Amino acid sequence: MGTLKAIAHPLRLRLYRSLFVAGVATASQLAEQVDEAVSLVSYHLRKLAEHGLIEEAEPRSADGRERWWQPASEGVSVRDEDFRDAPEQAAAHTAFARLLVDQRSELYRTYLDGRHAWGPEWNRAASDSETTLRLTAAELKRLNEELLALAKKYDDEGRAAEAAGDTEGRENVALHLYGFPFRT
After folding, report:
1. Which residue among 113, 128, 143 closes a domain?
2. How many CB atoms lie within 10 A of CB 59?
3. Which residue in 20, 39, 119, 169 is a FRET match for 126, CA 20 to 30 A apart?
4. Rounded distance, CA 180 to CA 184, Å?
5. Phi, psi (rounded to 5 degrees) for 113
6. Are 121 and 66 within one domain?
7. What range defines the domain where residue 180 resides?
8. Across the strands, what pairs with 56?
9. What is the pLDDT along the chain (184 residues), one digit of tens a residue?
10. Domains of the chain: total
11. Torsion of CA 37, 39, 40, 44, to 10 degrees
């Protein structure tokens, strides 16, 4: 519950996402990205570290005063079954999920507002689609697992190519997939 509360803070979630994209960064670098004071960012980074979400990284410069941070794992996984028997925790889970949706929507709105700057190649590659499927819960679970595995395959290949020096044209790409039941 404490870990969920730690990351379910708007600034902490933005910092975690920025750090995840960067791989490693200092509080100063992250403060610049989120447009907040370094002291405030340092405080929130320490809170994330207290809950095992991030950890100190090997220094990347000779300046011993700089603290470098990195994600402590490959991501955060929050599952409904972790909260099913505790209503107060379920409320925190819902609040966290809503915060994720809000930040993901803001990220996409930022792209939409500035898409002209990306050029035709990126705009043709970007997608916005919705598909309505008729599935069972088991089929939806399997579909989600397969989509995540496919996304991870592409990420692994891209990171390997980048590590080999193939950096031309590579950008961070957000892929948001939602699969949920609804009734009309």
Report:
1. 128
2. 14
3. 20
4. 13
5. -65, -25
6. yes
7. 129-184
8. 69
9. 578 888 889 999 999 999 999 999 999 999 999 999 999 999 999 999 999 999 999 888 777 778 999 999 887 777 777 777 777 778 888 888 899 999 999 999 999 999 999 999 999 999 988 899 999 999 999 999 999 999 999 999 999 999 999 999 999 999 998 888 888 7
10. 2
11. 140
